[in-house]
Amino acid sequence: MTGEHVNGKNVGKVVLYALSTCGWCEKTKQLLRTTGIAFDFIYVDLLEGVEQDDAMDIVERWNPHGSFPTLVINDRKSIVGFREKEIREALGL
Amino acid sequence: MIFEGLLETEVEKLYQTLNREAEAGGYHLNPDIEFTKNLVRGLMKNEQRYGYRSCPCRLASGKRAEDLDIICPCYYRDPDITEYGACYCSLYVNNPIKAGEQLVFPVPERRPPRSRRLTVGTARTATAIPQPVLAFPVWRCKVCGYLCAREQPPDVCPICKVTKDRFERFI
Fold first, then answer.
1. Percent above pLDDT 70 for chain B
2. For A48, left (φ over 0), alpha (ψ -120 to 50), or beta?
3. Cβ separation of A24 and B113 shorter than 8 Å?
4. Would you call A21 and B106 a contact, using CB atoms and an 8 Å cutoff?
5. Phi, psi angles (nearest 5°) of residue B100
6. CB A66 to CB B46 under 8 A?
7. What would the pLDDT profile of B5-58 be if each residue is shown by its tens digit?
8. N or C: which terminal CB in chain A sees fewer CB atoms within 10 Å?
């Protein structure tokens, strides 16, 4: 399993780029779960080859450091790191 | 998080070892034990899949030579603890955080991005420094800064226990 869609209230396209071993990524995912919104998450470390390169290209477009977690909201805004207040505000929660 | 196939007895053992070594070297593990044990599980998983304990919060390449800087403890731990009170993944923290007087907050990534990684660090090599005449070269541990003057770096850093390949020629 390299990622999945989490069902919930639709607030637009919300994609979390994460690592399967990262504690801060996990906290961010749990935060999104508690808000009850719909989102997708992708474990970039579990992708291989071209798939992983493509995912990294997207992450770096939003976050030049290519670090995790990177949350991309509606292809307009990104939040890097577990920043609860910023994430809630950006999602209008 | 996905941690299949890790034995809890092994997780506990590694946690205890890291804690003991940290305290012996003047470092502290994050006091949030559940969070910290998840980082330990991440290290174990990375050791399983890559062959070395790379940072659980960074994407490893799978090539040890390219990931020497992010093998735990990473080259960025000490400057991050000095500046932010914790290392990037927060496995290691300073005294106030250990004592619960200060909270951990997200530490910005200090590692250069992929595109700049190969060139960074080569600018300041020993060859760029005027070479005094010494009986022995001086080697520096890139994790803890330990210096020693001898023909070759030690197999294991006597201070922070990292391996020989994480030393650089200093003088």
1. 91
2. beta
3. no
4. no
5. 80, 15
6. no
7. 889 999 999 999 999 999 998 999 999 999 999 999 999 999 999 999 999 999
8. N
